[in-house]
Amino acid sequence: MPQFCDVAVPVPLDDTFTYRIPENSPEPCIGGRVIVPFREKRLSGIVTDLHDREPKFQTRRLSQVLDSTPALTPELMQLGRWIAQYYIAPIGEVYRTMLPLSAEFRRVIGYHITDKGIAALHAAASAGSSLRSQKDRDHQMLEYAALNRLADGEVVREATLRSASGATKSVLQSMLRKKWIARDDLSDVRDASRTVQIAILKNAGGKLNPNQQAIVAYLRNQEGQRASVEALRELTVPRTTLQTLVRRGIVELADEAATFHLSGLKPRKLEFLFTKAQKAALNAISNAVDDRKFLPMLLHGVTGSGKTAVYLSAMQALLAKGRSAILLVPEIGLTPAVAADLHQIFGDEVAILHSALSDDERAEQWKRIRNGESHIVVGTRSAIFAPLPDLALIVVDEEHDHSYKQEEMPRYHARDVAVMRAKMCNAAVVLGSATPSLETHYNAVQGKYRLLELPERIEKRPLPEVEILDMREEFHRTKKDEVLSRKLVEEIGERLARREQVMVLLNRRGYSAFVLCRDCGESVQCKNCAIAMTYHKREHRLMCHYCGFQRPAPKTCPKCGSEFVQYLGTGSEKLEHLLHGLFPQARIARLDRDTVRGRDDFEQMLSALHCGEIDLLVGTQMIAKGHDVANVTLVGVVGSDAALSFPDFRAAERTFQLLTQVAGRAGRGDTPGKVVLQTFFPDHYAIQFAAAHDYHGFYEKEIRFRSWMHYPPFDAVSNVLVRSHKLDEALAWSGILGKWFHGTRLDGVRVMGPAAAAIVRLKTEYRYHFLLKSRSRERMNAVLRAMLDHATTQKIPRFNVVVDVDALSLI
Ligand SMILES: [Zn+2]
Ligand SMILES: [Zn+2]
């Protein structure tokens, strides 16, 4: 057996760490989990190497081997190394993200008494208390109570010690400072799999009363003469009956690992009526799957062209051959209704991974996939790490969606990881969208990705007519600053009279966007962030949309005390209110993060819309994503061009995508749809091309702009954020790094900054940033690594320097 193992631990450090394997230990394996001491703690890490090379420094011994077979396959280990390299992310944090088994490791702290503590306890017994204040005497009482509990020298868990002695966390801390007690890390592995109690029929001898007979008869009829205790409850016999049977040895109870609830559904053959273009796309995908060679494809299909049917058919075909597939969807796409549909199609072969799963449930699903019980995985971002064997196809639906980028360490983009994983296992990968990202479409144009197109809606339904409404002109005519134009109000009225449904998009929640003082000109800002607070009328409070801080709505200016405070700007809550006033008969609902708290709210709202219980739905971009409601014939767009004035090179692309997607909600049934698009920028190309349903026109214009400005897909862009709760630290550190950037030869890498971030203070942290651009990713990553090394020598913690490769959010 090798003497040493290298372990990747989940800490913000780029290295792995070497540990000695104890002689009597089971042998660890590469890709398996081990528990190791790290500083004062014990952490669960992944073994990356086994060897006999004795390090120059003193090594610690690993504490425990958790897996005798790899938890991460060689393929996933390789993918993890690529992510760490490409995104400059600590390898241990990458592996932790890939492996949803954290629920199995429980952090537990314990304490034991020290010699000093024993002496203190003895001294207290012989002398009385000399403390004067009641508070100090109370504190002392709690300390002695805790010492008493520890007096026999055993290690006691923190929770036990606190409930036995009444000592609070701060009491324990003061005892630690006096060195009366010492800490022990009792963190341990627990079996995270849920268990169920099973009743097993052993022998049915002897006389039985009717209740007992009912249970015995039931068990006798079950396969293996066993059933869960849960199931026996439905027999409506007293609970004591079962206990009596157990006591008499007729029935035995046992705990068994609960398997995920299986419905017994078998995959069902789907019969789609495909258009010619759909058939061609399906053929291309199926051929690529059968070739067992890496082939990336872009499926560019207009809204309503039936992309999903193509994916599902391709996945069914490969499932029939015993192979496996992953379908990634944006967060909002995984509603319970979609999950139910997937169960109908794939039966128990599908594992569904979404963010509402608990850690335990996620671990269970992971094990099912790992054991080969399901070959089809559907899920959000992290489902790309599903441990499927013989992966044949990865589909990334709505590939342009920003929820695929993780905005915390490791900051990976699931779409790009999908392409890399497909490449590593010779699989086909399909990126689907009605509005492909510039990067993806550029790859298709360059011939790196194969282009599949669905240029028409199914059943030859027309794309909706889009009318652009110039709000500047509207103001000239009416001399009033109205949120809703006369034209849009008129069109809504007509649809409601015809009992058709309407959606209105306003991509800002709350009632008033900000509160302004007429006397001093100040807006009310969040105490944690450099951001104006939004007024929410129902709660009558101001809220920060970034950190969640709330405060009562002020009657007077918090700065100068003036009574002339004004509530300005319109959010979705106010729009709903306005529409209620205009159409008092209509049934109006609102879909945004204030009305949708859980998954069920979202589902209920959508099904109410489907059943025709809602006439008019107001909402933020949540209403734009993928809903297919046949009776929506009008979509209004209100104030959703504000993003165009943001200092973000992706603003035009984002606006074009949002407008195209929301317009795509209109006219998906038999009646053609219409869109009224209110804007202050009627001549902007993002608005013009969205109105004309002209993706290619938009792409041509936007790609030239990106080329001139050296933005992606031509140059790679990285954001380096320096953050600290202390302003002087944030300034000093960004100054140190700025000096380094400017004093270092950076061949082919351009650095802008340091500059204050768009939100200079967020969640009480001050933020300064650098933007790096380069044609060469290798050069840029080399510069970023050298910068991090310099930060380390300057004692700037790794946590406070955030490197975001291919950054999507520059706030
Ligand atoms: Zn004021
Ligand atoms: Zn805030």
Task: Summarize this entry quickly.
The chain is an alpha/beta fold and 811 residues long.
Major pleated sheet = 7 strands, parallel
Q: Could you tell me the radius of gyration in angstroms?
A: 31 Å
Query: What count of helical segments does DSSP give?
Result: 24
Mean pLDDT equals 89
**Strand share of the residues?**
15-25%
Low-confidence sequence ranges: none
Q: What is the number of beta strands?
A: 36
Give the ligands present: zinc ion
Query: How would you sum up the global shape?
Result: globular
Task: Pick out its properties.
globular, six-stranded mixed beta sheet, 811 residues, 23% strand, seven-stranded parallel beta sheet, alpha/beta
Could you characterize the architecture of this molecule?
By secondary structure, the protein is an alpha/beta fold. The protein has a 7-stranded parallel β-sheet with strand order 17-18-16-19-20-15-21, with helices on both faces. Strands 5-2-1-4-3-6 form a 6-stranded mixed β-sheet. Strands 22-32-31-23-30-29 form a 6-stranded parallel β-sheet, sandwiched between helices. The longest helix is centred in the N-terminal third of the chain and has 17 residues, at 134-150. One zinc ion binds next to loops. The site of one zinc ion has 8 residues, from loops.
